[in-house]
């Protein structure tokens, strides 16, 4: 059974860089044809796919966030990481990591439970 767990700070100050890590168990993040995504859901809004890193290490980003986002991985720890620069209060959201056979994770994939991140001074 594939399990994902997000970790990172719950509170970030404006203009700082948010960094979140997803730890995967039950599957390798280098598994062929598998993609590992970050998705967020601001309060009162729908989910927004932010980007993904493929089994190959290739990365894909939502164009609206590409200039501020970076996704990387540590295969030795079976983890992948999101960095979001220059955050503002509008980046306050529940952040999820997910794994799926598509670049943009679907509800049929494997998801973490989500972690609340608040951007506030």
- Low-confidence runs: none
- Rg estimate, integer Å: 13 Å
Largest sheet: 7 strands, mixed
The ordered H/E elements are EEEEEEEEEEE
Keywords:
121 residues, mainly beta, seven-stranded mixed beta sheet, four-stranded antiparallel beta sheet, 11 strands, 0% helix
Description:
This protein has 121 residues and is mainly beta. The protein has strands at residues 3-7, 11-12, 18-25, 35-41, 48-54, 59-61, 69-74, 79-84, 93-100, 110-111, 115-119. The strands form two sheets. Strands 2, 4, 5, 6, 9, 10 and 11 form a seven-stranded mixed sheet that branches. Strands 1-3-8-7 form a four-stranded antiparallel sheet, with no helix packed on it. The termini are far apart. The model has no long low-confidence stretch (mean pLDDT 97).
Sequence-ordered SSE layout with sheet pairings:
Layout: E1 3-7, E2 11-12, E3 18-25, E4 35-41, E5 48-54, E6 59-61, E7 69-74, E8 79-84, E9 93-100, E10 110-111, E11 115-119
Parallel strand pairs: 2-11
Antiparallel strand pairs: 1-3, 3-8, 4-5, 4-9, 5-6, 7-8, 9-10, 9-11
Give me a quick take on this structure.
Helix content is 0%, strand content 49%. The protein has no helices and eleven strands.
């Amino acid at each position: 059974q594939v399990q994902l767990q997000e970790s990172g700070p719950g509170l970030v100050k404006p203009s700082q860089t948010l960094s979140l890590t997803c730890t995967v168990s039950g599957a390798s993040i280098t598994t062929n044809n598998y993609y590992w995504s970050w998705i967020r859901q601001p309060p009162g809004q729908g989910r927004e796919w932010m980007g993904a890193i493929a089994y190959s290490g290739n990365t894909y980003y939502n164009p609206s966030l590409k200039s501020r986002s970076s996704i990387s991985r540590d295969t030795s720890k079976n983890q992948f990481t999101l960095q979001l620069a220059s955050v503002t209060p509008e980046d306050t959201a529940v952040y999820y990591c997910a794994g799926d056979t598509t670049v943009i994770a679907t509800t049929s994939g494997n998801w973490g439970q989500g972690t609340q991140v608040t951007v506030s001074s």
